[in-house]
Amino acid sequence: MIFFYIRHGDPIYNPDSLTPLGMRQADAIAKRLSLYGVDKIYSSTSNRAIQTAKPTCDLMKKDMELLDFANENHAWNDFTIQRGDKKTWLFQDDKTKQLFTEDAIISLGHNWYKHPEMTSYERGIDRIYNESFEFFKSLGYEHIRNTGKYKVAKSNDKRIALFAHQGFGLAFLSVILDIPYPIFTNHFDMCHTGMTVIKFEEKEGFAVPKVLTLSSDSHLYREGLPTKYNNGLYF
Asked: How far, rounded to the nearest angstrom, does the alpha carbon of residue 50 sit from its chain's CA centroid?
């Protein structure tokens, strides 16, 4: 199975939608996916994710299936921290990012949430793991937690796309790839309509997901659209 994870296009968060640039990005990723072919298309229940997925559905004449567990609002409740009067993602909070580099967290590995300052985040990781387990089980793969592999219940040679978010996606990818959240979020990120491609390589009844590309934006370059990370946040 080839699994595509696509972040939504350039957003307007209130009301939940895409900017004109985001719409063009959505058209660009649709053209790219149409070159590969997609058998099934899923989207978060967020409007900005749905709007990003729609051009792909239209171009490929596919229906869209909605996954509420991928909605960013749930991840926002699970993986944010309050600093004074401001609430922010763990992976954007300077103090938390520093904590994520310290041995007290790193040495805990997959049990990072047992650190005294992180215990409230176990619920969120468990939620995403349990929902992801059921999702991939429906695709034929049963995740064996913290091993980096899946039992193949039913072989799958399809191409599956999920359109969702950054905050959810970083937690989701860390869970399905069995990379502890602090390590994953400190070292990886994703841009608007960035496409991550994961191949589930099957051998002797098991599958090990391998990332072939992470948050690729080559479709933006091909269409002559800006390739600055999230509108030039870093470069």
From this structure: 15
